[in-house]
Design goal:
Elements (H helix, E strand, L loop, with lengths): L2 H40 L44 E13 L5 E6 L4 E3 L5 H7 L5 E8 L5 E8 L5 E3 L12 H4 L4 E14 L5 E6 L4 E3 L2 H4 L11 E11 L2 E11 L2 E4 L7
Parallel strand pairs: 3-5, 9-11
Antiparallel strand pairs: 1-2, 1-4, 2-3, 4-5, 5-6, 7-8, 7-10, 8-9, 10-11, 11-12
Keywords: Signal
Protein name: Secreted protein
Length: 269
């Protein structure tokens, strides 16, 4: 065998050895790649950040008609009686003054029989501003009985005005016992000209044709509604005041002239 043949045979064996070595190396590399991939997959997934948070699941559409559950505001409270009336302007001539049972001038009567009321704590200012026979212009509120609570009074002759003001806070108020100390027992009879009303509009007495005022608490007055009407003749007894401006009493007995009923039971049970 020639030297060239021997060289070729040796070269061929060497190539086969390299081929077997390369095959083993490729197999080892493939196994390494599988191990690395498995290790990477086993690592803990990173915590989501605000930028990669998953979108919330879609909200299912409601089935059928869903009632509107929006909160409704409560209805406004009804306005007090006098606030429901509109301010009115009226002009008239003063025929007489009227007083309350304590003797304070708390209003006057126009020539057309309109009763105009004014706060009794302003009695002295009122009688200084206007007199009988004066023509005055008033701004006030008219109740369902036609009586007017004046808020402003203007003497048309002098141009002077008097505006309703609350009583001073520093003025001491007399107790009911002291307020009643000067009252006298009175007995009256006459024809009803007007029904008087409390601040909230409920009847609380009558004004007779001669200007006498008969007062009683509204709950008591409701028991005599058949007599609290114009042109009805009534009789009353009670305690009050009679002075140069008029006469008024707080009734303790009330009814018709031939049937006066005691309003209060003085006998304790």
């Amino acid at each position: 065998m020639s030297s060239k043949s021997i060289f070729r045979i040796a070269r061929l064996h060497e190539l086969k050895r390299y081929a077997r070595a390369g095959s083993n190396l490729a197999r080892a590399a493939a196994i390494s790649l599988v191990v690395v991939a498995t290790a990477c997959a086993a690592q803990t997934a990173p915590a989501p950040t605000p930028g990669n948070l998953p979108a919330p699941p879609p909200v299912a559409a409601p089935m059928g008609n869903v009632p509107n559950m929006a909160l409704q505001a409560p209805p406004p409270a009804p306005a007090p009686f006098m606030e429901q009336q509109q301010s009115r302007v009226a002009t008239g001539t003063i025929r007489r003054f009227v007083i309350n049972p304590e003797g304070d001038v708390d209003g006057f009567v126009f020539a057309d029989d309109t009763l105009v009321l004014f706060p009794p704590h302003m009695s002295s200012q009122l009688v200084s501003l206007v007199h009988r026979g004066d023509t005055v212009r008033i701004v006030g509120l008219r109740d369902n009985s036609g009586n007017v609570s004046a808020q402003q009074i203007t003497n048309e002759r002098t141009g002077q005005q008097l505006v309703d003001q609350p009583p001073p806070v520093d003025v001491a108020h007399a107790s009911p016992v002291l307020r009643g100390a000067g009252l006298v027992q009175l007995s009256v009879k006459g024809i009803v000209m007007r029904v008087t009303t409390a601040p909230r509009g409920e009847p609380d007495g009558v004004m007779l044709q001669d200007g006498t005022i008969v007062k009683m608490p509204p709950p008591v007055a409701r028991q005599y509604m058949s007599l609290l009407r114009p042109a009805v003749v009534i009789a009353a007894r009670g305690y009050g005041t009679r002075n140069q401006y008029g006469e008024a009493l707080e009734a303790t007995a009330f009814g018709t002239p031939d049937n006066v009923t005691q309003l209060y039971n003085n006998n304790p049970n």
